[in-house]
């Protein structure tokens, strides 16, 4: 990462997306990042240029300054390899695909719900319906009627009893 990339971080845009319960962690992370940036900015981006003529005049050992100059100019500090950008890009593609699948599912749900709303708007208002008309539109609500007969009291336990066949009833044998 170059110095420009580090300076280009939009902390305010990131802060807007941080959940309220994680603000403390975000502030600590930003402080640590700022500390690293200050430490990095305290050092020059390139190695300082040395006055080799001064050292040639003042160092008496023959060839020593030339040796140091050659090694100093050949010195390359390797920048760490970027092994995380590809992982982040892969994760981003995966998340974007999941978002697209979710969006498509939501659009299908919206279409289905719109159809349901259209059906509900097409029927007459409930205030104007008779009980028979209501039960015709909503047969699942018809407990104890021709559409859904049951015995009193109309409880789930009694529904289970209604579903028992005569073979299951052991009390008739006594």
From TrEMBL:
Keywords: CF(0), Coiled coil, Hydrogen ion transport, Ion transport, Membrane, Mitochondrion, Mitochondrion inner membrane, Transport. Its main location: mitochondrion. It is found in: Mitochondrion inner membrane. It comes from the Eukaryota. SUPFAM superfamilies: ATP synthase D chain-like (SSF161065). Residues 96-123 form a coiled coil. PANTHER family: ATP SYNTHASE SUBUNIT D, MITOCHONDRIAL. Mitochondrial membrane ATP synthase (F(1)F(0) ATP synthase or Complex V) produces ATP from ADP in the presence of a proton gradient across the membrane which is generated by electron transport complexes of the respiratory chain. F-type ATPases consist of two structural domains, F(1) - containing the extramembraneous catalytic core, and F(0) - containing the membrane proton channel, linked together by a central stalk and a peripheral stalk. During catalysis, ATP synthesis in the catalytic domain of F(1) is coupled via a rotary mechanism of the central stalk subunits to proton translocation. Belongs to the ATPase d subunit family. This is ATP synthase subunit d, mitochondrial. It comes from Polistes dominula. The lineage of its organism: Eukaryota, Metazoa, Ecdysozoa, Arthropoda, Hexapoda.
């Amino acid at each position: 990462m170059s110095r420009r990339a580090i300076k280009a971080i939009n902390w305010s845009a990131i802060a807007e997306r941080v959940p309220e319960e994680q603000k403390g962690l975000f502030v600590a992370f930003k402080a640590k990042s700022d500390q690293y940036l200050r430490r990095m900015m305290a050092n020059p981006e390139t190695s300082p240029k040395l006055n080799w003529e001064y050292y040639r005049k003042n160092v008496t050992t023959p060839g020593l300054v030339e040796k140091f100059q050659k090694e100093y100019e050949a010195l390359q500090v390797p920048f760490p390899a970027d092994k995380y950008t590809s992982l982040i890009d892969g994760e981003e593609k995966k998340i974007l695909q999941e978002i697209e699948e979710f969006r498509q599912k939501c659009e299908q749900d919206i279409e289905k719900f719109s159809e349901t709303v259209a059906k509900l708007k097409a029927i007459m208002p409930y205030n104007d319906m008779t009980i028979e008309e209501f039960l015709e539109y909503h047969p699942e609500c018809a407990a104890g009627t021709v559409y859904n007969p049951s015995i009193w009291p109309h409880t789930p336990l009694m529904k289970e009893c209604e579903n028992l066949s005569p073979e299951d009833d052991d009390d008739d044998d006594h």
